[in-house]
């Protein structure tokens, strides 16, 4: 019994070691990024298990005390526990960045498939629109959109999502243009397969793999954009805890020596973005056919 349990526990480690031997450092980059994301995801899903305080409690401790003791990351100017704000704030930045990437990928992939397969005037029109959006710097475009739609989680999600649609569109359109000329697509068309069947059964499965890497990298970038928006131009309702807003609040006290108010939110934003970037870089190398042939 003990032997079988030990054998069962050792199997995952053996698989990890095998994958590490096969893919090398790329595998461990991927695993490290996944560990970071899972740790922050746990913060977002079970914050009450990590802190006894409430993020809105303005009587958690003395005002502006440095990290140490009961308050491991200190308190802010409203006597709220900074660690608690970090834990609960993970929900906001994760939900906005991931949801924005999902929305942009769904719209961008759909339009890219349609444009590349249909061609003609539709393709030229969509390409022109996407190119017009693509030439704008992402942060500037997000700020402009956020200023138009106003504050709020849904509005920020929309503003962040729009800037990544052209990325998916250009990638999927280019692959669709090449794949629709393949012999197996021509064979499917010759036996009477509908356009919808060809798109979903023969073209979509061959383009989706490359978008996975783009998705993780876009989430990493969306994290920075979301934090920049809430730091620079938009204020969310007081009922929402956000790292970017806490960063903006903390900068006012940096000159007087309260460094922890910006250090910890900034560190968490960078760590979360780094986690998704590492996953994207690891997947990019692992899915590279030339790497698999080594």
Structure description:
It is globular and about 75 Å long. 74% of the residues lie in helices and 0% in strands. It has a single domain (2-292), classed as MetI-like fold, CATH 1.10.3720. It is an all-alpha fold and 294 residues long.
Quote the average pLDDT.
Answer: 85
Q: Specify the structural class.
A: mainly alpha
Task: Bin the strand percentage.
Answer: under 5%
What is the class in the CATH system?
Mainly Alpha
Rg, please? 23 Å
Q: What percentage of residues falls in helices of 4 or more residues?
A: over 70%
> What name is given to the CATH topology?
MetI-like fold
Listing every helix as H and every strand as E from the N terminus to the C terminus, the arrangement reads: HHHHHHHHHHHH
User: Major β-sheet, in short?
Assistant: none
What is the name of the CATH architecture? Answer: Orthogonal Bundle
- How far do the termini sit from each other? 41 Å
Question: How many strand elements?
Answer: 0
Count of DSSP H/I helices: 12
Q: Which regions are unreliable across 5 or more consecutive residues at pLDDT < 50?
A: none
- C-alpha geometry: globular
When the domains are counted, the total is: 1
């Amino acid at each position: 019994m003990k032997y079988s349990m030990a054998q069962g526990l050792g199997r995952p480690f053996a698989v990890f070691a095998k994958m590490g031997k096969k893919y090398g450092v790329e595998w461990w980059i991927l695993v490290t990024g996944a560990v970071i994301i899972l740790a922050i995801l746990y913060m977002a899903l079970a914050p009450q298990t990590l802190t006894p305080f409430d993020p809105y409690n303005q009587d958690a401790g003395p005002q502006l005390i440095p990290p140490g003791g009961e308050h491991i990351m200190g308190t802010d100017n409203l006597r709220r526990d900074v660690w608690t704000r970090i834990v609960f704030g993970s929900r906001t930045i994760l939900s906005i960045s991931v949801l924005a990437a999902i929305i942009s990928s769904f719209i961008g992939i759909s339009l890219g498939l349609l444009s590349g397969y249909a061609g003609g005037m539709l393709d030229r029109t969509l390409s022109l629109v996407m190119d017009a959006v693509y030439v704008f710097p992402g942060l500037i475009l997000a700020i402009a959109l956020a200023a138009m739609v106003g504050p709020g989680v849904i509005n920020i999600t929309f503003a962040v999502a729009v800037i990544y649609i052209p990325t998916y569109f250009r990638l999927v359109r280019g692959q669709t243009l090449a794949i629709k000329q393949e012999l197996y697509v021509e064979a499917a068309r010759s036996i009477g397969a509908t356009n919808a069947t060809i798109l979903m059964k023969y073209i979509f499965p061959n383009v989706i793999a490359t978008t996975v890497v783009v998705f993780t990298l876009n989430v990493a970038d969306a994290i920075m954009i979301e934090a920049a928006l809430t730091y620079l131009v938009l204020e969310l309702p007081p009922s929402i805890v956000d790292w970017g807003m806490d960063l903006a609040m903390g900068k006012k006290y940096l000159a007087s020596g309260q460094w922890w108010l910006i250090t910890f939110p900034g560190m968490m934003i960078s760590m979360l973005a780094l986690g998704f970037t590492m996953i994207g870089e690891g997947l990019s190398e692992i899915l590279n056919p030339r790497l698999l042939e080594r």
